[in-house]
């Protein structure tokens, strides 16, 4: 009998680890080749890990909610014949070392609590401002290293440490209660304090699923981080509606893809970002990072009511056909739960279609660390003044609202308003005679 090491597979260039959310097989279970053994999750995407071989699961090296790095052995499968990859002891050693490291961290935290703060021994980089705040508030090195950083490369920013200080003070004022176990999440955003909720006999209590908890944390963190400002503009898209009605059948026949309004709008947004690169940035503390690539996030509602934002990479380099294929591919895989971790990484600006659900306009929350998000409202037939050389008259036009939320820390009204106006200009100047 040979022993096969099931390792956490590489899930994309930007993904280095994942959390085990569920074991689908137990020890002693028979596993077929390509059969899913466990479910894992990154901060955005849930997926399964299949077995490369047929055999029997004889050892699980990690448990549910454990964080595993790409390439680590997570299980041992015993197979009949074949070449053994027999080094389970190494994986076990890694896990034992991780447990020992946690125990040492706890001891270090206890010792450091009563000792002067000296951050020279930390391998992590902290700005002088963060160090000063830590010293003034009596935060130990171990505590500082445990704070989730939201800056570049996971660095702890001033906002991160101030939120931690505030949270620590709030906890000190709160009477001690019995702890309630909660599922682990990967690098959760700070949670907001909520008031007690009254529950009577007819109410139903439902725990949020993992993704809903993450979304909740991200939204609260975004509102706490960015100074949200909105600009709204109404757009006449009559020409776009007529053109799409005219070509959509031929488009689907030739390209094998449905033509929705979304790729047309995405094309206009990508063009506007090239004209206003100040919207294609992110913020890291007191620094602005200008993004080289234009990667458009596309907010998509999932069948279970949750939200995910797959990303169209290098959107400005795609023609309308390429944009339609990218939109349909990501949308379909999002609904089927087939997105890969890299599909949701690297976005530089996000578009959300609130009009899908009948909303005329909305005030979307910025997808951190981006500085802007555009909401597309529902397209409606409305009476409008039409200007002609012979004079003005009232006609029926197809119109919609664009709602632009932007981060007032780095984007002023002139830039935020000019950007959304440029998107509107591109849409209203749409060439009805263009080919697809």
Write a structural description.
With 436 residues, the protein is α+β, with helices and mostly antiparallel strands. The chain is 31% helix and 24% strand. The strands form 5 sheets. Strands 9, 12, 15, 16, 17, 18 and 19 form a 7-stranded mixed beta sheet that branches. Strands 1-8-6-3 form a 4-stranded antiparallel beta sheet, with no helix packed on it. Strand 13 and strand 14 (307-308) form a beta hairpin. Helix 7 (262-275) packs across helix 8 (320-335) and helix 7 (262-275) packs across helix 9 (413-428). It is globular. It starts with a strand and ends in an 8-residue tail after the last helix.
Biggest sheet statistics: 7 strands, mixed
Helix/strand/pairing category: alpha+beta
Bin the strand percentage.
15-25%
Order of helices and strands: EEEEEEEEHHHHHEHHEEEEEEHEEEEH
Q: Report the radius of gyration as a whole number of Å.
A: 26 Å
Share of helix, binned: 25-40%
Count, helices: 9
Shape annotation:
globular
Q: What's the number of extended β-strand segments?
A: 19
**Mean of the pLDDT scores?**
84
Query: Low-confidence parts lasting 5 or more residues at pLDDT below 50?
Result: 83-95, 108-116, 175-189
Distance between the termini: 59 Å
């Amino acid at each position: 009998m040979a022993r096969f090491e099931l390792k956490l597979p590489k899930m994309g260039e930007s993904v280095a680890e994942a959390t085990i959310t569920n074991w689908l097989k137990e020890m002693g279970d028979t596993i077929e080749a390509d059969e899913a053994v466990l479910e894992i999750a990154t901060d955005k995407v849930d997926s399964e890990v299949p077995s490369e071989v047929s055999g029997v699961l004889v050892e699980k090296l990690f448990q549910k909610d454990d964080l595993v790095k790409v390439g680590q052995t997570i299980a041992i499968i015993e197979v009949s014949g074949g070449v053994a990859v027999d080094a389970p002891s190494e994986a076990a050693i890694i896990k034992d070392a991780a447990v020992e490291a946690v125990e040492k961290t706890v001891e270090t935290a206890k010792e450091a609590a009563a000792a002067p703060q000296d951050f020279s021994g930390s391998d992590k980089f902290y700005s002088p401002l963060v160090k000063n705040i830590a010293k003034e508030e009596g935060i130990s090195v171990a505590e500082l290293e445990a704070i989730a950083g939201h800056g570049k490369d996971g660095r702890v920013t001033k906002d991160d440490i101030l939120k931690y200080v505030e949270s620590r003070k709030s906890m000190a004022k709160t009477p001690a209660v019995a702890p309630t176990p909660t599922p682990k999440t990967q690098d959760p955003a700070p949670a907001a304090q909520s008031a007690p909720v009254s529950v009577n006999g007819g109410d139903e209590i439902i725990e949020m699923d993992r993704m809903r908890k993450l979304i909740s944390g991200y939204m609260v963190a975004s509102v706490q981080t960015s100074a949200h400002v909105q600009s709204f503009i109404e757009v006449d898209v009559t020409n776009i509606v007529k053109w799409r009605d005219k070509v959509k059948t031929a488009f689907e026949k030739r390209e094998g893809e449905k033509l929705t309004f979304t790729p047309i709008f995405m094309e206009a947004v990508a063009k506007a970002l090239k004209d206003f690169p100040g919207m294609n940035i992110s913020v890291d503390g007191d620094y602005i990072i200008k993004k080289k690539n234009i990667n458009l996030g596309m907010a998509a509602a999932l069948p279970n009511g949750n939200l995910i934002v797959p990303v169209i990479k290098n959107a400005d380099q795609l023609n309308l056909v390429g944009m339609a294929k990218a939109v349909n591919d990501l949308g379909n895989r999002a609904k089927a739960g087939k997105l890969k971790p890299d599909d949701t990484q690297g976005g530089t600006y996000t578009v959300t279609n609130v009009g899908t659900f009948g909303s005329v306009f909305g005030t979307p929350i910025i997808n951190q660390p981006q500085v802007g998000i555009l909401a597309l409202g529902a397209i409606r037939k409305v009476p409008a003044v039409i200007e002609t050389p012979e004079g003005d008259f009232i006609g029926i036009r197809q119109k919609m609202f664009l709602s632009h939320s932007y981060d007032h820390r780095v984007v002023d009204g002139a830039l935020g308003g000019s950007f959304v106006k440029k998107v509107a200009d591109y849409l209203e100047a749409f060439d009805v005679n263009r080919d697809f």
